[in-house]
Each structure stands twice: as structure tokens, then as C-alpha cells.
Amino acid sequence: MSIRKKFIVFIGLSIITILCTAFLLGYFYLYLPRLETIGSNQARAAQQLAYALSAIIDERVRDFPALLAFRGYGDVLAVANSRYRDINPEEIVSQMQEIDKKWSRITQDGSYRQYLNRDVSDDLHRLQKQDSYMIGELLLTDAHGGLVAASGKTTDYYQADEEWWQKAVAQKGNVYVGEAEYDASSGVFSVPLAFALRDTERHLVGVFKVVVDINAFFYILVNYEKQEDVSITLLNSRNEILFHAGVQPLSRSLPEFEAMEKSGRKWMIVNDSSFRERPAGVFLAYADVVHPWFVVNGLHWKVIIIQDKDMIMRPLYLFLLRLVLAEGCMLALLLVFAFIFGTMTVKPLEKLSRGTEVVAAGDLDYQVNIHSGDEVERLAKSFNKMTQSLRQTNLKREQAEDNLKRALKIKSEFTSTVSHELKTPLAAIREGVQLVVDGSLGPVNAEQKDCLQIVKGNIERLVRLINDILDFQRLESGRMAFDMRPNDLHALIREVVQTMAFSAQKKGLDLSMRLGPGPLVCLFDRDKIAQVLSNILSNAIKFTEKGSVVVSASSRGPHVLVSVEDTGIGVKREDIPRLFQRFAQIQEKGYRKTGGTGLGLVISREIIKHHQGDIWIEPGKHQGAVVCFTLPLQQNPSAHA
């Protein structure tokens, strides 16, 4: 990326950072406080509606028990209860259940009136008609649950098996208020209100039930919706809807309230409401309807206010929009200034960049001409001085390279010549010594034979040293040829081990092999790999005074792994890299006394590299060392000449 672009990007990122900071500050110090204030106001409004509903109950319903208790129905109830004076309770229930079975039929033909007190029923009917908006039905039962009077037709005669009757009797002085339900007798959604009538000795004489139409509570909710342009929902204890515009009571629930109730908050924002689908979401705020009757009977009605979030937050959104537009204009203006200033700054640097490219391509005579009067001009002058220095250094380097090439050529020719000249007389000396040792030229005593064996060993050591030097010279110059063809690696290992067996026996070492069954065929130069194995085995035997040397070979994926493990003096991990350096020797006790050129492992590494393999050394598990190398199984390495 160019400096001009970096400068523009820097200015852009700075403005974006400012924008993000402004948004974060606006979110935390404007948006969230505003949201919290609105939510609290909505929750207070819901609480006021809950108080209003509680007041309606006090105003319209609370006096019903006292009103009905003093209407003089005691004599009627006494007559009704006297019918059961000499009948046991089981028979009373049985008689009432028999009447209950035929009740639906006799209510249709009108004969049900014979079971009811007509005067009380007419009185209850008048009371219901006087406040039909509030009262859906009135009925009176005796102490055993039999129907005594009703304001209209009822669906049952025997009421003692009804939950409202049993709980009203159990209240012992309190009024029972049940959950809202659909009353089949009155045909309205209602709240059952019941209380027990008792004589002066607190004996049960009857039970009154008032079916209160729940629509009587809704007018205040409807008025609030119209005034405040919000939606109101009233839920019962089971979170079923009692009131919501366009929704039938008890036909559905409000799942969003469960999430709000679990959160412990009195308000929350819901993105997908059951009644409104707005991208910005809606406000939900609620309050519990608290009334003594509700508390005693375990009722938990909730008033919920639902309002569109975007309608409430519109002023804040407009402020944020103006802020974004202002910062956007500022960003565009600063980007233009950044482009102009960046162009003025970058042009000298572009000249300097072109100069570096030309010089890097090899033109050391190129000069950068910049006259900006600042640090860039000084940098250009330093660049021109550097190219001049590079020209001089380059000339010296070329001269040094020519001298080095001539010296290397002379060294290589001298090494080859001396090595070949030494090999010829050494071969003749070795053959002559062997003839004397064998006794072909006359008898030799034991002492003379031992001396000749020492001479022969040193001659062979000198021959190996010369061969190592020649091999290293050929590898270094790239003149060593490789004869790559399929060979049995197991067979080669057996041959090399057999060749080295005599040396191991002389030192009392156990030389063994761990090879798989059958041949292990792969592509390699037989003589070169034999040389590698001989070098490794020779070192293992040389540095092992007692114990064993083990050669193993196995397939490892696309490679063959060959390892030679000994129980010798071993090698420290930090000394391992030095073993693959030319002419390197470890200067510790036990190493220098064995002698050598220090080229064996170097030559082995180059041979393995030409086979596209790898070679390394590891310390033994307990003692000694492990030398490993790999050869590819399938890949056909190209021969190098």
C-alpha cells in the first residue's frame, strides 16, 4: 500500500474512530438513560391502571356480599335445609345427583321451577337486571349445595361438587374470587364471586354466587388506550389474555410476558410481539393488580402496556441522524485534504522508490534528483552516495571472485594430482607388504609379521583418507556419477555387515541385523549406499569398546528408514551439528584417539542428499548413538553427474 493510501486510510480511520466514540457515548449517555426513563414511566402508567382496576372492584363489586346477606333469605334457607333433617348425608348427595341428571331436560320444559323458591328467584332476577352490565348471574344454594334460587336458568342443580362452592365454604368469612372463565349459564366471560352464609352459631346455611361479567372492568382500559395511543393487555394468573383489542378473552396467551417475568424487570423491549410486528420493536411494561380478595385467593392479574418503540424514540433517532450526517460531511472533507496533502508528500518518495528499483535491477549509475528541502532530499543524497559506494564495492567483489575461482581451480587440480600420485605408490607398497606377510618372499617370524601388519594397517588408513579426499572433491565439484537402479537394500546391508564382521569380532562386539522378511527393493546407487553404510558401521565399531552394534531397516510410508545403533561412548546433542561439518573433530577424550579425516559423515550426507533422502544422528536411549538415514521408496531420484 502506498504512503498516500496509508495517509488517507489513517485519516479515515481517525474519523471513523471519532464516529464510533460518538456513537458509544450517545448510546451509553443518551440512548440507554432515555430508554430507562421511558420504561420506568410506562411501568408507572401500568401501575396506575392496576390501581384503577382495584378501585373498580372496590366501587362496583365489594358491596355485593353485604347487600345480598341482608336481603332476608334466612327463612327461605332454613326451610330448604329442613328438608334434609332426617336424611343421612350420602342419601342427600344421591338425591341431588339424581335431580342433576335430569336438570337439563326439566330446564327446557320449565318444570325446574318446582325445585326453586320463586320469590327469591324473582328477587335475584330483578337485582341482575338492575346491574346487568356488571352481573351475569346470581344464584343461592342451601347448606348441602342444592340450588334454592337463581336469577335465570342454570346448567346444574347440585353445586356442592363445584370448585367455587367448596372454596367459598372453606373461606370461613372471606369472599372467594376465582379465575376468569366462560360461564355457560349466563353466556358471558366472567369472574365467579362466592361467599358462605352462616347463622349466629357460625353454622353453614347457604352459599351465594355472583357471576361478575369481566367486561365491567374493561372500560377504563379502553379509555386509556384511546387517550394515550397505546395497547393494553390484561392477563390472568395463567398468563391468558382477559383483555386485548380484537382478541377474545382466554383464547390465547402472551409468551413475551414470561420472558419479562423471568428477567425480574417491570419493562422490556420485544422485537417480535404477538400483536405487533415492528422492526424497531415494542415496549412492554406491566404491573400487578393488587386487591385483598386477589391476595386471599391467590390471583395474580397483570396489566400490560404495549407501545411502539420507534414512536417513543423518534426525537432521539432524529438527533442521531443529524449527528451522523454532520460527521459524514466532516469525514468527506478531511479525506479530500488528506488526498491533496498525501500527494504532495508522496511524489518525492515515489521518485526515490523508482530509484531503488532501477538500482536493484543493476544500474548503479542511476541518480535520484529531489529538491524538496526536507528529510526526503537528504535521504536522496544519501541514496546517491550509497549507489556510488556500491559501484566501488561491486568492482572489488568481482575482482575478489575472479581471484577466488582461480585459487579454487588450482586447489582442486593440486588435490587431484597429489591424491592420484599418492595412490599408485601406496598400492605397490601395500601389495609388497602383503607378499612379505604371506611368506611368499621367504619365512617371516612373528615379531616381523606384527610390524608388517602395523605397516599394512597404516597404508590402508592412508588409502582410505586419500579416497575420502577424492570423493569429497568429486562431490564438491559435482563430478561424481550415480548409477541409479533397483536394488535389494536387505542384501546390501547383509554384505556390508559381513564385511565389517571381522572388525567387530576383533573388539569383541556383537554386530547384528534387524531386517524384515524378504527383499526390500528401492532405487539407489549400490556402491554409494554401501560406502555410506561402511562409513557409519566403521564409526560405530570404532567408538564402541564393548556391547553391540545393531543395523535395522524398515519401511516408513514413502521412505525406507535405515538406522545403526551402538552402545559406544555416544555423542552430546549440542555436538551433533559439528559432526556434519567438513574436517570437524570432537575434541573430547575418547574421540581424538581414533583418528580420521572428519569427512566420512560429510560424504555420507552428500550421497544421501543426491538420493533425495535425509541423514541425522540421535543420542542412544541409555548410551551410545543412533545414526539414521532415509531413502525414497517410490520417487525416482535423478542421477547427478
TrEMBL record:
Residues 343-395 form the HAMP domain. Residues 383-410 form a coiled coil. InterPro entries: HAMP_dom (IPR003660), HATPase_C_sf (IPR036890), HATPase_dom (IPR003594), His_kinase_dom (IPR005467), HisK_dim/P_dom (IPR003661), HisK_dim/P_sf (IPR036097), Sensor_HK_Regulatory (IPR050736), Sig_transdc_His_kin-like_C (IPR004358). Its EC number is 2.7.13.3. Pfam families: HAMP, HATPase_c, HisKA. Its main location: membrane. The keyword Phosphoprotein applies. Keywords: Coiled coil, Kinase, Membrane, Phosphoprotein, Transferase, Transmembrane, Transmembrane helix, Two-component regulatory system. The chain crosses the membrane at residues 7-32, 316-341. It catalyses: ATP + protein L-histidine = ADP + protein N-phospho-L-histidine. GO terms for cellular component: membrane. SUPFAM superfamilies: ATPase domain of HSP90 chaperone/DNA topoisomerase II/histidine kinase, HAMP domain-like, Homodimeric domain of signal transducing histidine kinase. This is histidine kinase. It comes from Velamenicoccus archaeovorus.
